[in-house]
Write a structure and sequence with these properties.
The structure holds three protein chains of three kinds. Chain A has one domain: MetI-like fold, CATH 1.10.3720. In chain A, helix 2 crosses helix 10. Chain A contains ten helices and no strands. The longest helix of chain A has about 40 residues. The radius of gyration of chain A is 22 Å and the shape is globular. In chain A, about 45% of the residues are buried. Chain A is mainly alpha-helical. By secondary structure, chain B is α/β, with parallel strands linked by helices. Chain B folds into two domains: about 230 residues, Periplasmic binding protein-like II (D-Maltodextrin-Binding Protein, domain 2), CATH 3.40.190; about 100 residues, Periplasmic binding protein-like II (D-Maltodextrin-Binding Protein, domain 2). Chain B is globular and about 95 Å long. The model of chain B has no long low-confidence stretch (mean pLDDT about 85). By secondary structure, chain C is an all-alpha fold. Chain C has one domain: MetI-like (MetI-like fold, Orthogonal Bundle). In chain C, helix 5 packs across helix 6 and helix 6 packs antiparallel against helix 8. Classes of the chains: A mainly alpha, B alpha/beta, C mainly alpha. Chains A and C meet through helix 1, helix 4, helix 5, helix 8 and helix 9 of A and helix 1, helix 4, helix 5, helix 8 and helix 9 of C.
């Protein structure tokens, strides 16, 4: 059996079970809506244009927040990774703040910047920031000492040292941090939109919950999965390209 | 072999007797849910018959001599939608004081309940805005941000008010927030307006909000309604218990609708954390019985049919529901008969005109 | 200054400066006290909560919820992860489905869970268990799939049966993955507990206090709750990391 077939076998079976259980009424419809109902909910939101608008808004929020958080994380992570003093200064506070789930900051952030875009972008940025910092710091630690020695022996300037030796060796760990940051960003986006929103995928989910429309909730869960998969695949593509280019350059 | 036989017989009789005892004394817990919480999230209700019943222990008194029957109340901060989830998960037997929108939504989505008595009708809602915001009429809300507690009867009432004054999703932004969050958001300037009831009066007195509009001054058809439901499962299992719960609620309604008890009723509701003066103002120039009536008369039926149509029209449910098959007035009728209250409350027709006068209208408040 | 003291002093420098700045802002009334209470006010609130209140039982409630949810989700995740890692077929059959499931943000499942289990304890525990499940699975899967080739060769050379191979070679080498999975699951369970308490019905717990602070506009309560959260979270991750280190050391012996 081809790789694709095996991958699709389990989902297909699950779908068949779902369809069968809805058709036979094994579970009441408010606990498990039929696939047709979920499809209808999806089609309706798409037809009215709400789905596209909400996907776009959610993507914008994640994009802005993740960009901010990742860039900040790269800068801050690099700084504390490369300078022991900076690490000793900021590590304890950073680690303590990082223990609080981003979701828990939302009430305070709302007080500071309101419930609009600023709130969502802020919490998403923070949620992305933390893993990126950890990834960068880890990546820098991962650089084998011999490589660093080599750089020093070749009297590389600090900039060269970082860009030609440290950074390329740290790329895998940095990308792990980026991937985790992106995952965090999505989690926080949905949480923030569930908290207080008037548009977005999370808003549609919470609307579905308030109006007891489980088919809408399931439809949005599917959409989230697909959108998340696409964005993550895009990031993975960038990572593969970068590694390939890096291997070629080496 | 007579002795062993005698012992065997004795054993058989004892065994059967012992086996029967648990069957007689099967403990039952009656799980009642209420869609709301009091101030500071305390587990108390106010403003309706159920609140009187809960605060006045009417249901507990009804079952005071039944050690096998326990009463369990749950108050849902998430209001109707959260209560519906509990119903769906099979964690509740009675939904007491459930608002019209969530009960309609639940029915449309397959929740199997029976409408056994009304909890309140013609409840007033107020519009709250920040002081000096320049919003003096509902129309002024155009272009602003409003909070709506989606899925609750407050949303439905608010939607009707807004629609009647020309507002919709197109010219105002609606943000889904629960009551506590909405007040905090209004306070902090995150939203410009929210609808609510008596919890807003205290805030107005403290200068935190202004109340430029209320439905009492506009049209009572804009008010909220709520009712008490029993799950079909519980009704089939314990119809006699359903009757007794209805009896207790009717007793509470009798107490709460009587003008002579006006001050006492406000004191009972004050357990929810709001001052009795707030209730006095909310019911200013209004008889208690105007809202606290358990009857399932033509008015109530027409209101629910009407609300169901509105709900469908606003796209909040996706199929029409059968309202008529929902009502089960037999328990109510039996209770009214047993307590001699068949003519206590006035009956209204579908348009809201009084058809028969009720004895309750003879009651007078002691303060007058 | 001597070497051992330097990191500690430096580490304390920034927090102390920030608190000092905070105190200065509050004292100068630059921001309204109800938006930013002074550090002293927060400390006083903390004292009140410990004295008066239910804070102890709130923390306890949150902790037990986290642990029970962890106890449900983590073993399930480990079992699933072992299946995926040790059986190539299972990995190819169910792996993609699991990866697709991971794409959906955890909080998106909240409405579903509250409809299926209600918003009470059952719903919260279901959410926390789900949160613990994924990291446990991922790490165990990775560990179990990574049986080094030399070990496999050895099994084949010794003509070990399937069961023996599992018992003597595969499972032991999967152990580090399992331990990492447990550690990650514990942390995620704790993080999810706060989420569960914020989004589902009110019940005793730290999330409930945080919500209360927000509703009543009591920022001092919010800050107290957040600080306790952070401290407990730190405790959790240190505990989990220490446990993992211990078991690896024990394994080496």
């Amino acid at each position: 059996m081809s790789r694709l077939t095996t991958a699709l076998a389990a989902p297909a079976l699950l779908f068949a079970l779902w369809w069968l259980s809805a058709a036979q009424g094994w579970l009441p419809e408010q606990l498990l809506p039929a696939p047709a109902a979920v499809w209808d909910a999806l089609a309706e939101t798409a037809a009215s244009g709400d789905l596209q608008a909400d996907i776009l808004i959610s993507l914008q929020r994640v994009g802005a927040g993740f960009a901010l958080g990742a860039l900040g994380g790269l800068a801050f992570g690099g700084a504390i990774g490369l300078s022991r003093t900076l690490r000793q200064l900021f590590d304890p506070l950073f680690l303590l703040l990082a223990q609080v789930p981003p979701l828990a900051w939302i009430p305070l952030v709302i007080l500071a910047v309101g419930i609009d875009e600023a709130m969502k972008v802020t919490v998403i940025a923070w949620a992305s920031f933390v893993p990126v910092v950890l990834g960068v710091a880890q990546g820098i630690r991962d650089v084998p000492a011999p490589l660093r020695e080599l750089g020093r022996a070749l009297t590389f300037s600090p900039w060269d040292l970082v860009s030609r030796i440290v950074f390329p060796a740290a790329v895998p760990a940095i990308f792990t941090g980026l991937r985790e940051g992106l995952a965090n960003a999505w989690q926080t986006l949905v949480a923030a939109e569930l908290f207080a929103s008037s548009e977005g995928l999370g808003y549609l989910i919470s609307l579905g919950r308030q109006l007891f429309q489980l088919d809408l909730v399931l439809a949005m869960v599917l959409v989230l999965g697909i959108v998340g998969l696409s964005v993550n695949s895009a990031l993975a593509l960038v990572e593969r390209r970068l590694l390939r280019w890096q291997a070629q350059a080496a | 072999m007579r002795t062993p036989l005698r012992f065997a017989l004795l054993g058989f009789v004892l065994g059967t007797a012992l086996a029967a005892v648990p069957a007689l004394a099967d403990p039952v817990t009656i799980r009642i849910g209420y869609p709301g919480v009091g101030a500071d999230n305390r587990p108390f209700a106010s403003g309706d018959i159920v609140a009187v019943a809960h605060a006045g222990h009417f249901v507990e008194d009804e079952f005071a001599h039944d050690p096998d029957v326990k009463i369990e109340w749950t108050f849902f901060r998430g209001a109707g939608p959260a209560l519906n989830e509990s119903l769906a998960a099979g964690h509740l037997d009675f939904a007491a004081g459930l608002g019209d929108l969530p009960s309609i939504v639940g029915r449309a989505n397959g929740l199997k309940t029976r409408f056994i008595l009304t909890d309140k009708v013609r409840d007033t809602i107020y519009l709250a805005v920040r002081p000096n915001s320049g919003i003096n009429r509902v129309e002024d809300l155009a272009g602003h941000r409003l909070s709506e507690f989606k899925g609750t009867n407050l949303q439905l009432a608010a939607d009707k008010v807004l629609a009647a004054h020309g507002l919709s999703e197109r010219n105002a932004r609606f943000i889904n927030l629960d009551t506590g969050s909405a007040l905090a958001a209004l306070n902090a300037g995150e939203i410009d307006g929210t609808f609510g009831s008596i919890e807003l009066l205290g805030l107005r007195d403290r200068g935190i909000v202004e109340l430029p509009y209320n439905t009492k001054a506009d049209a009572t058809s804009f008010g909220r309604h709520s009712a008490t439901f029993v799950t079909e499962a519980f009704e089939q299992a314990h119809p006699e218990l359903v009757q007794r719960v209805v009896d207790a609620f009717v007793k509470a309604a009798r107490f709460g609708a009587d003008e002579a008890h006006r001050a006492a009723v406000f004191d009972l509701w004050a357990k929810a954390g709001y001052p009795p003066e707030a209730f006095a103002e909310d019911f200013d120039h209004e008889r208690l019985a105007n809202r606290l009536s358990p009857l399932i008369d033509d008015y109530v039926v027409a209101r629910y049919r009407d609300q169901a149509a509105h709900v469908r029209q606003y796209g909040l449910i996706r199929k029409d529901i059968d309202v008529d098959g929902w009502f089960e007035p037999k328990y109510l009728e039996a209770a009214l008969k047993a307590q001699n209250l068949e003519n206590f409350w006035p009956k209204y027709d579908a348009e809201g005109h009084k058809v028969t006068i009720g004895d309750v209208e003879q009651t007078r408040s002691a303060a007058r | 200054m001597n070497a051992p003291a330097r990191p500690i002093l430096l580490g304390l420098l920034v927090p102390v400066l920030l608190i000092g700045l905070w105190q200065a802002i509050a004292a100068a009334h630059l921001v309204a006290p109800y938006i930013l209470p002074s550090p002293a006010a927060v400390l006083a609130r903390f004292g009140d909560e410990l004295d008066g209140g239910t804070f102890g039982s709130d923390v306890w409630a949150s902790l037990t919820r986290a642990l029970v949810g962890f106890a449900i989700g983590a073993p399930a995740g480990i079992g699933f992860g072992l299946l995926l890692g040790l059986s190539r077929l299972a990995g190819r059959l169910f792996g993609p489905l699991f990866l697709a499931y991971r794409q959906v943000a955890l909080f998106a499942w909240v409405p579903l869970l509250s409809m299926w289990f209600g918003g009470g304890e059952a719903g919260k525990l279901a959410f926390i268990a789900m949160a613990a499940f994924a990291p446990a699975t991922v790490n165990t899967w990775r560990g179990a799939a990574a049986v080094p080739a030399p070990y496999r060769e050895l099994s084949r050379a010794l003509t070990l049966g399937r069961l023996d191979h599992l018992r003597l070679v595969a499972l032991p080498s999967a152990l580090p993955g399992v331990l990492t999975g447990l550690r990650s699951a514990l942390i995620h369970a704790w993080l999810a507990t706060v989420g569960a308490e914020l989004f589902l019905d009110i019940a005793p717990g730290l999330g409930g206090r945080l919500n209360e602070g927000r509703d009543k506009f009591e920022v001092d309560l919010m800050i107290v709750a957040l600080t306790v959260l952070a401290t407990l979270g730190l405790g959790f991750s240190q505990l989990a990391a220490a446990a993992e280190r211990r078991s690896i050391r024990w394994r080496r012996r």
